[in-house]
Amino acid sequence: MQRKATSCAKAVEMIPDGAILMIGGFMGVGSPHRTIDELIRQGKKDLTIICNDTGRPAFGIGKLIVAKLVKKVIASHIGTNPETQRQFISGELEVVLTPQGTLIEQIRSGGYGLGGVLTSTGVGTTVALGKQVIDINGKQFLLELPLRAEFALIAAHRADYRGNLEYALTARNFNSIMAMSADHVIVEPDHIVPVGVIPPDAVVTPFCCVDYIIERCN
Amino acid sequence: MDDKVLIAKRVALEMKGGTLVNLGIGLPTTVANYLDPTLDVYFQSENGIVGMAPAPEEGMVDPNLTDAGGGFVGAIPGAASIDSAVSFGLIRGGHLDVTVLGGLEVDELGQLANWTVPGKMVPGMGGAMDLVSGAKRVIVAMTHTAKGKSKIIKRCTLPLTSVRRVDLVVTELAVLEPTEAGLVLKELAPGVTVEQVVAATEATLIIPANIGVMPISESVAVAVGS
Predict the structure, then answer these.
(1) Cα–Cα 20 to 30 A to B203, which of A20, A168, B79, B125?
(2) Domain-wise residue ranges, chain B
(3) Is the pLDDT of residue B226 over 70?
(4) Residue B106, SS3 per DSSP
């Protein structure tokens, strides 16, 4: 069996400066916190982050913003992180604000091999600027293009050593979708269990999507 | 009575049994505190749960069970956890009966602006645009004015959340129903006059001959709300 388990440091070493990352979590719940800390420790630069939100300044993805590792964020919400807003308003940071349901569908379509999605969300608003409007049976939809990343950094509740993933409650959020949409998927699980402990019906992300499993603290 | 308590109590009267409801952060969240407990109202939270319940007592929280504001919550027996794609599929796909959201502006067309003040406040829209575009019924719960300025105006000046006409607007002064013809004054808050509402409203209101009063008893409301 291919060995996917690795240390947090080794996993993060694979990520180059300027990389496009998807990072899971919703207000830091279900974010890969150890991986985020390691990105900061290794001082990665000029990252593009695709995520739901930028957490808070001292919690979750917000730490990357405060550490100024990020040049561009694609997110639905930055309101709980004043530092993201400050860098955005001052022009230090590029921010693309996207409706949450549109963002998750852009990520999903990137991972599902689709050419994009049509949604009525945002029609007639500033979100529609520069986007193609398509009429379907008399109703207007925006064409939203797929998103992909070089690395997805996700969190899970349990992984087995093959890479099957199970999630806990609202910590699932963007993680299981992002697991489909990046060239390399690094998962930080709360627990790693022997293969077979997670029954097939309980697997949410199948092992073939996962490239690296971050081992427990070392 | 506190203005926001009055608004939350009035919105709570709009809830019907057997429905799925999404409450926005802030004032809308407090609507749950004033629901008729005999009604089976189910709450969805867009971060991924159907069947959200109030937070358990201290020491019993699960850090992986939160609402869209990141606050700890509980779950009813039979709740379901879902990913964000399913969550917004519920919202956009016609599975969500009601959403209650705050507002910065509502205009004569019934359009809502509630997500940004460009250059000053750029929190992002989060799920608000999907909720307003997709929920079967959209209720705006907000104060009638901010810093003395009417929030109910002729045309929104802030970026819109959606071009969809919202279904009801509840403030501490009145209940307004946006219609094709314009904003109809449906109810007054207890002790409030039509003239007071008109004076606090920049938009032109349609004022019917018979206007109701919010069916909320001032004395009972104060006792429960304080």
Answers:
(1) B125
(2) 3-225
(3) no
(4) strand
Beta partners for residue A185, in sequence order: A152
Q: Which of A170, A178, A188 to mutate to test the interface with B (most CBs of B within 10 A)?
A: A170
Residue B137 contacts A, CB cutoff 8 Å: no
Q: How far is CA B121 from CA A83, A89, B29, B62, B128, in A?
A: 12, 9, 21, 32, 15
SS3 letters across A18-60: CCEEEECCECCECCCHHHHHHHHHCCCCCEEEECCECCECCEC
Q: Which residues of B touch A62 (CB under 8 A)?
A: none
pLDDT in tens, A137-147: 999 999 999 99
The band of B218, judged by pLDDT with boundaries at 50, 70 and 90, is low
Contact B70 A26 (CB under 8 A): yes
Confidence bin at A166 (pLDDT 50/70/90)? very high
> Average pLDDT, stretch A18-32?
98
B112 touches chain A (CB under 8 A): no
What is the CATH topology of the domain spanning A5-99+147-212? Glutaconate Coenzyme A-transferase (3.40.1080)
Listed residue (A179, A187, A170) closest to A4, CA to CA? A187
pLDDT category of residue B120 using cuts at 50, 70 and 90: confident
Residue B46 is among the residues annotated as catalytic for this protein: yes
Closest Cα in chain B, distance from residue A112 (Å): 12
Buried residues in B98-114 as b, exposed as e (16+ CB within 10 A):
bbbbbbbbbbbbbbbbb
Q: What is the chain B residue with the closest CA to A172? A: B83
**Residue-averaged pLDDT of chain A:** 97
| Cβ contact A157–B62 (<8 Å) | no
C-beta atoms of A101 and B65 within 8 A: no
Assign domain B3-225 to its CATH architecture: 3-Layer(aba) Sandwich (3.40)
- Find out whether A120 and A134 touch, Cβ atoms under 8 Å: no
Question: What's the pTM?
Answer: 0.96
**Cβ separation A99–B85 shorter than 8 A:** no
Composition of chain B by helix, strand, coil, percent to 5: 20, 30, 50
